[in-house]
Amino acid sequence: MKNETLIITRTFDAPRELVFNAFSNVEALNAWWGPVQMKNTVISLDFKVGGIFHYKMEGHGQINYARFLFTEINPFSKLVFKLAFVDEELNIIPPPFPIKFPMEILYDFNFSETNKKTTLTMTAIPVNGTAEEIEGFIGLNDSMQQGFGASLNNLETYLSNMSTHP
Q1: Looking at residues 27-40, what average pLDDT do you find?
Q2: pLDDT tens per residue, range 74-89
Q3: Quick one: which H or E segment has residue 40?
Q4: What structural domains and CATH numbers belong to the chain?
Q5: Span 115-135, average pLDDT
Q6: Which of 34, 35, 58, 152 is the most buried (most CB within 10 A)?
Q7: What is the arrangement of strands in the sheet containing 39-45, beginning at the earlier edge strand?
Q8: Residue 107 and residue 122 in contact, taking contact as beta carbons nearer than 8 Å
Q9: How many beta carbons lie within 10 A of that of residue 87, not counting itself?
Q10: Which 8-state DSSP code applies to residue 143?
Q11: For the chain, what percent of residues have pLDDT higher than 90?
Q12: 40, 155 in Cβ contact below 8 A?
């Protein structure tokens, strides 16, 4: 079986605190998080261990919901959560695409700073997926790299605007 871990690293020209905070408030998340071809709206954000970030994605005649369940928050250095597609009431549902895919993915974001530049390293692994679901996750690796890359481009724009208009 191929490697079932997705790793993405990006360096931003912004201090670690600013990058980390872009994950912790509604205004920031509405500005940059999610698929770029969709309109993304934060429904609720409870940024604490055990808290949930619930959001809606609209586009192409579809409405989908997802959530993060925060499992670890170390301010400015680490953020860990389980991501799942959900319904409006936060019940976990199968992903809205025709590929077998794990019901939950564990994301681990690490933030490090050198010379006021922040390197974000994201690791994603399936949670309790069947062999077929894990193969689906691996098969979508390139697509997920592109999708997260586009979201991180949006984050870069957001951070640039924040540093020029604090």
Answers
A1: 89
A2: 999 999 999 999 999 9
A3: strand 39-45
A4: 6-37+76-82+93-164 (3.30.530.20)
A5: 95
A6: 34
A7: 6-12, 117-127, 104-114, 78-86, 62-74, 52-59, 39-45
A8: yes
A9: 11
A10: H
A11: 79
A12: no
- Which two structure tokens, joined as six digits, stand for 67? 């959530």
Backbone angles phi, psi at 154, to 5 degrees: -65, -40
Q: How far apart are CA 49 and CA 58, in angstroms?
A: 27
Q: Determine the average pLDDT of the residues in 135-158.
A: 91
pLDDT band at 42 (very low <50, low <70, confident <90, very high): very high
Task: Check if the beta carbon of residue 43 is closer than 8 Å to that of residue 56.
Answer: yes
Q: Within a 10 A sphere around the Cβ of 27, how many other Cβ atoms?
A: 9
Query: What is the structure's pLDDT at 1?
Result: 46
**Distance, C-alpha 121 to centroid of its chain:** 12
| Positive/negative CA dihedral, 70, 46, 26, 160 | negative
